[in-house]
């Protein structure tokens, strides 16, 4: 969720990334099989045809605004209001999402895709639960990183996620390496390394935390491909199943990490802050349902790049984050590698 420090953003944002990977696989057989569950414009998702269509020109700006708002709002909570309880905030977002998807299921067609998922006990234990564990780890770690690192630097580190997916896939022989992908991996890795070297407020704990978050998230995306065998779930349907599982996992972790302190702090910042914060994150996931079917993978990749550039700029203007010319150069190299990764697979 990028702060839940970043995330309920994760569900929405990674659906875009997963759509990119699936389309690359379609166009070139040696690429990573889709680690995603978002339905493509070609395949649809059963009863999702009842959903109204929104043009890319309308939904992409909405998605960019909401995605950026989630990250900036969470960073504001953590570092300006000093509500430094990422496990609690993630748990609250997931609880809100679990309730919200069920309300939508009963009042709209937005979660009709859940009817197409045959959720057996065996599937839950073998697939949903282990993926939920990885999702919880990713959310907690990615949000914790915002306590140590700037929004700008975290966005730069997140550019390494496609590389992590490929490295895991190569390690477990899900796909074979290619020279072209190796060059792109080197380009993205070099760009992220340059950005890290140029970071003025580098914090080792924050860096390792975000690196672990990337590893958890990449593992989750690969596990979706392995365990769910191409099952189609859009962002809200995924949230419908994963949010309750992850909320319970996080709730079990909460007493051992943050205890009762966040509950007292809620009284200080006010419940309306938390309610509006969770609502913005939930609206992002609704926007993502329309986003994944609104444009090609390349269009969505470029929209994500534009969003990240805006976030970095906003981090500098709003929170006074400092970025160096070396970071600009490194992040530019990483973004070029990311776009090449998409365009090469689309040829």
UniProtKB/TrEMBL annotation:
The chain crosses the membrane at residues 54-73, 85-104, 124-141, 147-169, 181-198, 204-227, 239-257, 269-292, 326-344. Residues 56-341 form the Sugar phosphate transporter domain. It comes from the Eukaryota. The keyword Transmembrane helix applies. The keyword Transmembrane applies. It is a multi-pass membrane protein. InterPro entries: Sugar_P_trans_dom, TPT_transporter. Its main location: membrane. GO terms for cellular component: membrane. It is found in: Membrane. Residues 1-49 are annotated as: Disordered. Keywords: Membrane, Transmembrane, Transmembrane helix. This is TPT-domain-containing protein. It comes from Trametes coccinea (strain BRFM310) (Pycnoporus coccineus). The lineage of its organism: Eukaryota, Fungi, Dikarya, Basidiomycota, Agaricomycotina.
């Amino acid at each position: 969720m990028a702060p839940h420090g970043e995330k309920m953003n994760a569900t929405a944002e990674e659906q875009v990334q997963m759509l990119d990977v699936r389309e690359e696989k379609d166009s070139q057989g040696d690429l990573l099989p889709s680690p995603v569950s978002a339905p493509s414009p070609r395949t649809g998702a059963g009863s999702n045809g009842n959903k109204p269509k929104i043009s890319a020109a309308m939904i992409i700006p909405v998605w960019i605004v909401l995605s950026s708002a989630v990250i900036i709002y969470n960073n504001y909570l953590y570092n300006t209001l000093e509500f430094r309880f990422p496990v609690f905030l993630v748990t609250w977002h997931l609880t809100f999402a679990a309730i919200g998807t069920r309300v939508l299921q009963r009042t709209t067609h937005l979660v009709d895709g859940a009817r197409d998922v045959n959720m057996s006990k065996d599937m839950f234990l073998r697939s949903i639960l282990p993926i939920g564990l990885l999702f919880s780890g990713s959310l907690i770690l990615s949000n914790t990183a915002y306590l140590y690192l700037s929004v700008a630097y975290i966005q730069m580190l997140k550019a390494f996620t496609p590389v992590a997916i490929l490295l895991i896939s190569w390690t477990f022989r899900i796909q074979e390496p290619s020279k072209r992908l190796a060059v792109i991996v080197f380009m993205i890795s070099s760009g992220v390394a340059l950005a890290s070297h140029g970071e003025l407020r580098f914090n080792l704990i924050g860096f390792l935390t975000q690196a672990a978050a990337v590893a958890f998230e990449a593992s989750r995306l690969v596990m979706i491909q392995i365990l769910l065998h191409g099952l189609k779930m859009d962002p809200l349907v995924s949230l419908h199943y994963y949010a309750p599982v992850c909320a319970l996992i996080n709730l079990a972790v909460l007493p051992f990490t943050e205890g009762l302190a966040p509950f007292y702090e809620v009284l200080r910042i006010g419940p309306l802050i938390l309610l509006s914060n969770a609502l913005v994150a939930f609206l992002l996931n609704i926007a993502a349902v329309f986003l994944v079917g609104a444009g090609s993978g390349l269009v969505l990749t470029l929209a994500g790049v534009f969003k990240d550039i805006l976030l970095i700029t906003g981090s500098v203007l709003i929170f006074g984050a400092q970025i160096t010319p070396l970071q600009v150069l490194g992040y530019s190299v990483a973004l070029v590698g990311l776009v090449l990764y998409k365009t090469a697979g689309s040829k």
